[in-house]
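Predicting holo structure, adenosine-5'-diphosphate bound.
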Amino acid sequence: MAAGSAIQIPTRLPLLLTHESVLLPGSTMRTSVDSPRNMQLVRSRLLKGTSLRSTIIGVIPNTSDPTSDCDDLPNLHRIGTAALAVQVVGSNWPKPHYTLLVTGLCRFQILQLLKEKPYPVAEVQQLDRLEQFTHGHKSEEELGELSEQFYKYAVQLVEMLDMSVPAVAKLRRLLDNLPREALPDILTSIIRTTNQEKLQILDAVRLEERFKMTIPLLVRQIEGLKLLQKTRKSKQDDDKRVVAIRPNRRISHGSITEDEEEEEDHDDVVMLEKKIRTSSMSEQALKVCLKEIKRLKKMPQSMPEYALTRNYLELMVELPWNKSTKDRLEIRAARIVLDNDHYAMEKLKKRVLEYLAVRQLKNNLKGPILCFVGPPGVGKTSVGRSIAKTLGREFHRIALGGVCDQSDIRGHRRTYVGSMPGRIINGLKTVGVNNPVFLLDEVDKLAKSLQGDPAAALLEVLDPEQNHSFTDHYLNVAFDLSQVLFIATANTTATIPPALLDRMEVIQVPGYTQEEKIEIAHRHLIPKQLELHGLTPQQIQIPQVTTLGIITRYTREAGVRALDRKLGAICRAVAVKVAEGQHKETKPDRAEVGEGEDCKEHITEDAKPESISDTADLALPPEMPILIDFHALKDILGPPMYDMEVT
Ligand code: ADP
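Done. Tokens:
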């Protein structure tokens, strides 16, 4: 196409003046048109013309169009490229302009400028076609050698690239099929060259000269690639690297770092593809991913869809398609774990053990989903966690309170920026295995809205007949949820959607008596809080009567959550005292904290020398352990919120 003798261009050509880039015969360039004469040319010639001839224009490089059409034309570069305007796109933003897609046909030289306004037109002489007739026998031989040499370098260069990339394979074929004299122009526009170099190639009208000038450019590119491959190899030996030379579409003074960044990104895509191929995803998923990666390779990175597709593929790779933890269920051990972690709640623990025993015997449980129903803070979540612990599984809590959109469960379709997978798939990604314990917290707080009914989506998730091929809208391929152990919690069954309730076995978890709460506090909550605050029993002492005081005067709840919080507040206050005390000198004659004294005495006595705030006021180090009596309680938690109840 490029320098073919068959091309006959008109003898008069309208001229498009460009200064940013150089179009060579045989290559394509996108150029922006916004100066007066160039705009005129597009409007009156390209947009109004009806014949093929009218789409042929002369592209003059290295010459900028004056900013006003009254200004004189600058000196025109004498040699240009006759080009076919393939596409014209107009836009009014940020200012009126056109974007032209032009394909170079052949060189021409300006013989005479015929007119300057409204756009320049010149009488021209076609150059490339004449070339074939200008050299004698000797130079033809020399040219044969030169072109052979050029061809060899070109083949070497192309073969250094990844032939599995379709564009590279095509280029390799083109090297054999195109006339040799077209190759210098085409390769110059593909490899990394400056505008100045391109201009020199354009000006090299004699073929021999053109070959001579392009060979060093090819050699330079080959050496550059070799160097790049060497450094890459030492960095990451086993990864197959693709080094792609960039087509001439970009303006070639784009910085090298930008190009390298792009190459790196390209490498990332190759890595991603490798990960996809080696991952254990389902056949269906693999097919979709390979299709997407193919699209990704062709997509410019600036497209919003590029990031979307990439995120999608990365998620697909990360998902635990085939990764699971090994169940280690031993009923006796499970009983010990449950007893150790929780005081009281005998009925619940009994039912959980039965459930686990059946699981152990049947291996695959398609039974109902356990749903713990009870007031807040009675240990529903914490039992769920213990179940995961006894099974040796990962635990993940999915809060459903207030969820009113079914895409929260099932994900958004991947059609807009910001789409995400649903909570189930997200949870699987977080835990990284396909058989975790999922605690669906507060199923009674699911709401309905215009965005669909999340309960319906949840039904599908929980249905053992369906959930082996659960399809999240974002993934758009099935994921097997049958290995996931679901447990639900709720405060009441009244608001659980009936269809959902039907799938569940409800286990009531009633509130605790005061005695139970005291036991829970001393066996579980206080040791946990001490550990959380870095305290030891030698530093703080909370008598049972104080705990009872907290329960009756500071909390009013069925569970133990507020109690836990109050204990946390006490530990914080004591931690400050302990930390302060470590910096103060001991003054032994003060603050005889009534160790072992009955706390009741402190309440009845008017004097309260052991109060935690007093010791602070007097800047004395506290005596260990710091006893939390009612005065201390008042100092830390404020005055009691409720009247003492008769217990
Ligand atoms: P729920 O999920 O019912 O709202 P949580 O499981 O979050 O309650 O429990 C709140 C806190 O109370 C947790 O720290 C938990 O360990 C503790 N807790 C509740 N019941 C008991 C119990 N019977 N034994 C030990 N700790 C308990």
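The longest strand covers residues 97-115.
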